[in-house]
Amino acid sequence: MATRIVYVVFILPIVLSIAFGSIVMADVLQSPGRELNMWPAHSGNTSNDNSITITGLEKQYTVSSPIEIQVTVNDSVFDCGDLYVTIYSGKDTVVSQNGFFKQCFVKNKSVLPVDDRFSEVIDTPGQYELVVKMNDQNQKSSISASGKFTVK
User: Fold this and answer.
1) Residues whose CB falls within 8 Å of the CB of residue 60, separated by 6 or more in sequence, listed in order
2) CA pair distance 101, 104, nearest whole angstrom
3) What global pTM score does this model have?
4) Whether residue 16 is found in the same domain as residue 87
5) 142: domain range?
6) pLDDT tens, 40-90?
7) What Å distances lie between residue 50 and 6, 22, 41, CA to CA?
8) Neighbours of 67 (CB within 10 A)
9) Is the peptide bond before 113 cis (omega within 30 degrees of 0)?
10) Of 48, 73, 56, which is closest to residue 120 (Cα–Cα)?
11) pLDDT tens across 63-75, in order?
């Protein structure tokens, strides 16, 4: 008697939820334009062109000197959006990441980040890559630029 209760209380709900979830997932994936993307590499459209530029990035820094950059965007699609500045020491090793949200700049023709500044000090000598990425207001598309530098 006790084993039947265990099956009804614990096992049956698990089996039913997996079956129901599978039916719902199969129905959703049958809709046109739907796909299962468990590990997206990026979201939306990404371009790497002359519409975004990094200014102030030197080729070489000393260990104690700050890395200070500004970003200029020449695309009106990205007149407002989120700016991300990431420094990588290897292919996927993030040293620093900064986010500047709701950057609206076209009406002022200003550089990014607006009313803020990016300044980072790296303590370890080596080769680094700085990547700036600007997402539009709806987080549907993005543009990016990158530059390499050395810390000695």
Assistant:
1) 149, 150, 151, 152
2) 9
3) 0.63
4) no
5) 45-151
6) 544 444 445 678 888 888 999 998 899 988 888 887 777 788 889 999 987
7) 64, 45, 22
8) 20
9) yes
10) 56
11) 889 998 888 888 7
Reported as a single tens digit per residue, the pLDDT across 104-134 is 766 556 676 776 778 888 988 999 999 999 8
Q: What tokens were used for 40? A: 């997206």
62 with 135, same domain? yes
The verdict on 78 and 109 lying in the same domain is yes
Pair (55, 125) in one structural domain:
yes
Do 78 and 125 sit in the same domain of this protein? Answer: yes
Q: If you ran DSSP here, which 8-state letter would residue 9 be given?
A: I
Q: Number of structural domains, the chain?
A: 2
Rounded to the nearest 5°, which phi and psi values hold at 40?
-70, 135
Q: Are 74 and 144 in a shared domain?
A: yes
Count CB atoms within 10 A of the CB of residue 119.
10
Helix (H) and strand (E) counts in the chain = 2, 9
The answer to whether the CB of 147 falls within 8 A of the CB of 129 is: yes
Burial class (CB in 10 A: 0-12, 13-18, 19+), 32: exposed
